[in-house]
């Protein structure tokens, strides 16, 4: 491996984008490529227990750091990962999957090799990814460098995932090492401006008396939170975020009034949107799980929508110079001359007081809100954790990762491990139900092997609460086996000084566990939080009613 190869060039581009660790699972079609990773001194291979976990973990890594890469093998590996990669396309997360494939000679000869259907068709898995809308690239020797450049700049510019197939006979193909000098230039983009779009927005909003800004996930992906805060403060416009996009703006800044979830939002938050005459919807998807089942009280006739997909004013397209990033950056310094009064934020909740009463979901959510300081990233599983915590305002600097659109249970645990790996200086805090955890529990071993020290809250309430509140509260299909969570860490190889396990059943016990977790920064801390089977956040119960009606 003394020659500079296609693989080395690909990895140099990945490194330039911030990919210090490469995730995935080895398979014979990718092993030669993995050698190029493990023989570097500036990059680390981190092997997962399975490909689904690798895809989830890459998603969490990318949300924390801005980009992630994972590697699978052809057929069996990539199909295991396709669920996680689909979540990344749904929720706009910049992840690269590299698939090690049979040689071109094998494929051209139509040989009946393993990890195929035995029918000489080597394109079906690629077509599956194309059908899902994931950018796909199959490297060929004559164009590999251009293909790598085009694929990786697509990820950088669009903040979306891509899928790259590397036939194993190309892994060690030599290329000119002088190509490395041009990598940085790939990511230098010309400044854009959108004066016509900004002027059109200014004219459309000129008579607004009760405007509001609704913030979504694309604001986070393109780091536009500060620009929106500046626009809001310059014009005294209140800001809400959606659960899909939570903490994209600083939730302590003066004009932030809360997280909006349609009519099931707290009334102190809901009225800002319900009473609005102009609604700026910025970088958002108005999905059922973050709009109270499509109960948002506005429509195109009063909406200025700016997203990566479109820009419209009251249903009509913005001028041709519209660009999502440039337009929002331009708004940061735009004075709409509205002469609006200062925003009156809703009252803060009373200080939390713990007692010896049994732990409830409501107390747990408030306690987690207080526990998440600005140096932590909160990763929430879809269900009781998401719907209980999305409505809680977070400290300045805190991050919030959830998956309310794709909603694949089991996502949050590997995503939390990915976030912790991506940034050891921020503590990842997971909250998940025991049912969801069982789907992806295998990568406890990876977390311990890598000496990662997240805080893991496991809600033990005898099953799939999110499903119970939708349908089948007492049905056996919503029950799950009861695990011994105190034995998980040692079962996956932890030494006694590497972790702490704490079981809590009362309010005071939970607060004590949180204080201990903050002291034990050198350990993985696992907290089993015992709660009642039918105890669920109010917004989850309301959402469940709407989902059940929607399913008939």
From TrEMBL:
<keyword id="KW-0479">Metal-binding</keyword>
<comment type="function">
    <text>Decarboxylates branched-chain and aromatic alpha-keto acids to aldehydes.</text>
</comment>
<protein>
    <recommendedName>
        <fullName>Alpha-keto-acid decarboxylase</fullName>
    </recommendedName>
</protein>
<feature type="domain" description="Thiamine pyrophosphate enzyme TPP-binding">
    <location>
        <begin position="397"/>
        <end position="527"/>
    </location>
</feature>
<dbReference type="InterPro" id="IPR029035">
    <property type="entry name" value="DHS-like_NAD/FAD-binding_dom"/>
</dbReference>
<dbReference type="InterPro" id="IPR012001">
    <property type="entry name" value="Thiamin_PyroP_enz_TPP-bd_dom"/>
</dbReference>
<feature type="domain" description="Thiamine pyrophosphate enzyme central">
    <location>
        <begin position="199"/>
        <end position="328"/>
    </location>
</feature>
<keyword id="KW-0456">Lyase</keyword>
<dbReference type="Pfam" id="PF02775">
    <property type="entry name" value="TPP_enzyme_C"/>
</dbReference>
<keyword id="KW-0786">Thiamine pyrophosphate</keyword>
<dbReference type="InterPro" id="IPR047213">
    <property type="entry name" value="TPP_PYR_PDC_IPDC-like"/>
</dbReference>
<dbReference type="InterPro" id="IPR029061">
    <property type="entry name" value="THDP-binding"/>
</dbReference>
<dbReference type="Pfam" id="PF02776">
    <property type="entry name" value="TPP_enzyme_N"/>
</dbReference>
<dbReference type="InterPro" id="IPR012000">
    <property type="entry name" value="Thiamin_PyroP_enz_cen_dom"/>
</dbReference>
<dbReference type="InterPro" id="IPR012110">
    <property type="entry name" value="PDC/IPDC-like"/>
</dbReference>
<keyword id="KW-0210">Decarboxylase</keyword>
<feature type="domain" description="Thiamine pyrophosphate enzyme N-terminal TPP-binding">
    <location>
        <begin position="5"/>
        <end position="114"/>
    </location>
</feature>
<dbReference type="Pfam" id="PF00205">
    <property type="entry name" value="TPP_enzyme_M"/>
</dbReference>
<dbReference type="InterPro" id="IPR011766">
    <property type="entry name" value="TPP_enzyme_TPP-bd"/>
</dbReference>
<dbReference type="InterPro" id="IPR047214">
    <property type="entry name" value="TPP_PDC_IPDC"/>
</dbReference>
<keyword id="KW-0460">Magnesium</keyword>
<comment type="similarity">
    <text>Belongs to the TPP enzyme family.</text>
</comment>
